[in-house]
Amino acid sequence: MSDSDQFKTLFSPIQVGPIKVKNRICETTNSPGSAGADSGGLIDEHFTEHHVAKARGGTAWIGSETWALNSPMPVGAAPDMGVGSGGMPFAIYQFPGFVEAVRKFCDAVHEQEAVAVFQLTHLNHMFSPSSVPSTELYDQVPHTMRDEQIEFVLDTYAAAAEKALEAGADGVEIHCAHDTVPQIFMSPATNKRTDKWGGDAAGRTLFIREGLARIRAVVGDKMAVGIRVNGMESRQGGYDLLAFREMIYIIAETGLIDFVNVDIGHCWGRHAYVPPSYHAPAEKREAGKALKTDLNEKVKILYSGRVNEPIVAEELLQAGICDLVGMTRAGIADPEFANKAKEGRMMEIRRCIGCNRCIGEAVHSILPAMMKRPVCSINPTIGNEVLWRDNFKPAEDKKHVAIVGAGPAGLSAARVANLRGHRVTLIEQGSKIGGQMLLAAKAPGRDSFEDFLYFSENEIERLGIELLLDTQATPEMLVELKPDVVVIATGSSPRPLLEVEGADSGHVVQGWDVLSGKEKVGENVALCSEEDYFETPNIAEYMAAQGKKVTIFHKWSHIGQDIDRYSYGTVLQRLEENGVNIVPGYRLARVDGDRVTCISCYSGAEKSFDGFDSVVLVGGSVPESELYYTLKDNYPFEKVYISGAAWLPRKMAEATQSGATIAMDI
Fold first, then answer.
1. Could you give the number of structural domains in the chain?
2. Model confidence at 1: pLDDT above 50
């Protein structure tokens, strides 16, 4: 089978209302905050480079970032800002120069023969059809909207659509999912009204139908018009798939929409609309299939939900699940994946691993908005597109570069250094590349992490990088190798909890050793955690899945505080289903036989827990930097760099970016 036959539907054109889309691959709207810090909120070169890179790479539908609209604020009221939301008296489309900036962006998208579709959004915890919290994650009670406030909001959709039309956009969609005001109108859990705006399915969809009618009055048939919707609420009293189908049918019967952009999930629990690696690709595809069954062919269905693979996208299209496929994270991991698939270069695709660092961090970061930027764990160019555009070029002085360690930092450094023309020798003491990613991939639901290692193995072979496995990089060995430059990417090792009495007991082991299979545990396990990301729940689930009874003792009020909100619900559900017990607020002090004694993080009081066969320590890691300082201070290489966790143990994106940055400097 030729590649064109393999993806014959995926790369076929489709008519969506008045616009023709060259293939079925879509970047659904996401808001990573790609504009530069000094842009004043306008679309700038950073924004354009981030999104148009996907259009250059073959994605046909560019949704870019949402337009937050203005709310009817009373005099003297301050903006009401929340995580991933905001109620404001002004909108981005009202900024001076906004239309001109959007026009430049649309022109850049059109140069790549793609279409630009913008999303219009009211997402806040300030206004609602009823004074019921719009999301169960936050207990912020909104103001019940009066008719004049509803009219104000409906008019903003038309005003924004008029600006989009003026700027040359191809389409707009009303955001009716993910705790937006329109979804709150749709939901019987949040819409308790008894007037025309509530009650049955017709009443609860009136807000959306009125918004669409006002947009159509402005744009006519000059643009594609659609809605983005959540196919099923995952909250008590919310709508199910059957009720959803009834509401969408009522909306579609108006003839006002050309497409429905559908996923399933919410912003904070399971099933999240940005499903992490624990979920199967397109796990909730039944929502797309239902709409394809219910609606006429004039209304096109765009389905998204962890479609990170062209083969899965083609399968969805051929099975009649949808007409277009949202592949947003696939395009972040590899903006060129579409062209690679079309050209038969499947082995070169850098596949999304579903870690959720990208979308999760956009709305769940501790950084202020001006310091946020897009990020990808496996693609160091993301968030740095302009820097790479302006600075990536062949090295003027080609060197021999020795890289010690084939984890994420070392692999990133090796690939980028090779692409710049350097001769690269990659040295790994283990029998496989991957470093800590090999461990992470052993945890249940994290096997997709191996996809990055397959990509790296393919790139090592394709680019001709010299790889030395099972090789210990000693100073003497490196001197004999005679590189010009050395990059130390030796990673990190588990942090020993030195202050814990009895930590050297035979039944006290490190979590990494459990995941690797080096250490076995008994039937009743105490996992003592001083770590706040995925490591603790992953190791706990790994043991529980083997039938072990696991109790997590965590240093603070809850585990996983650094886990993104789209993954957190799934992580906790899996622990619950595996019977893992969590005791928050206790730090391990000593181990004595089957007894662990902990100290309360609140009061400092001690408390003992008995009956544990094994104690597993998960306390983060410490840098392995000795080789760097030995070489730096004592050996005459031109330059010695330290990269990734060997410098600072952080997350995967920091490691890959560190390696790539060093490779750009050589």
1. 3
2. no
